[in-house]
């Protein structure tokens, strides 16, 4: 009998995944990962309640649940990079690194030491084995697909990974949870920072990064307000800019369009379709390809430049692999026949060929219409 160690977060997806694995005849062990300790007693850090929920679900399913602390690994491998990126004016997605460095690295190593044959999570994604290796596929539920967050996994990681709910719709997952009496059947999905929870983000970030106020300018250079610090804003942001309504009578909402670190200036524009918000090309760095090989330049691929963005047509060009001398970090250029909206440095550009996730990289530079 094969042994599967499943990461149980206290949510419905991982709980139903554990039940499905047990029904399929696997020896299943639940593992709860604790990865944040700075304010474990705050109202926003729910790890204690999440552990109790995971334990209650494991009891109903009839499996053992162990707890492991990866707080040090999380701070070293994920959170330090998260802060470094924000300090540099970029907007990282910590879930991407969290999956690559914690859930499918530290957790995988721990599970293998426990004698596991595979690890499982409640991600909405699928793995397919072919003659040439393993492919990562989109989750069947288009509204829940999480392959974007998993695009940095490699062949060794995918060969051990199982995603039991990846071929299901979310409503069916909740239906099963109700049918088998899971106490987390109606628990809402987490939308907070990976392992840190749901909290006022600007207040949280302010604990770790200094505020450097500066001017907010519109395209003609006129100052229309003062920002709290460039780290606290992201391209395309509409709410929370702090400049109130229209300043020129047009009635159009303001959007963050550019961040000038050298001048400590936040540039804003009015109107969702302003040229400064329309990206027609970008360069991504630190590329990671699931097959181990980059797509051929000119290959027919689509791209997601942020998790909730629709797939956009693109042309991949000028793939530059990483070199040992460190002159290149592994880069590729993308060109868009139809501009992408507010492609943001620090976010991931993830490429697809149909339902297959090919991999991607971190957006470093963008070119906008003028």
Please give a structural write-up.
Helix 1 (12-23) runs parallel beside helix 2, helix 1 (12-23) crosses helix 6 and helix 3 packs antiparallel against helix 4. This protein is 23% helix and 31% strand. The protein is α/β, with parallel strands linked by helices and 370 residues long. The N and C termini lie far apart (61 Å). The longest helix is centred in the N-terminal third of the chain and has 20 residues, at 94-113. The protein has helices spanning 12-23, 47-61, 71-87, 94-113, 155-160, 170-179, 201-206, and strands at residues 3-7, 27-34, 64-69, 118-120, 125-130, 133-138, 161-162, 214-217, 223-227, 254-260, 265-270, 278-289, 300-304, 312-320, 331-341, 348-353, 356-368. It folds into three domains: 3-201, 3-Layer(aba) Sandwich (Rossmann fold); 210-272, Adenine nucleotide alpha hydrolases-like domains (SH3 type barrels, Roll), CATH 2.30.30.280; 276-368, Elongation Factor Tu (Ef-tu), domain 3 (Beta Barrel), CATH 2.40.30.
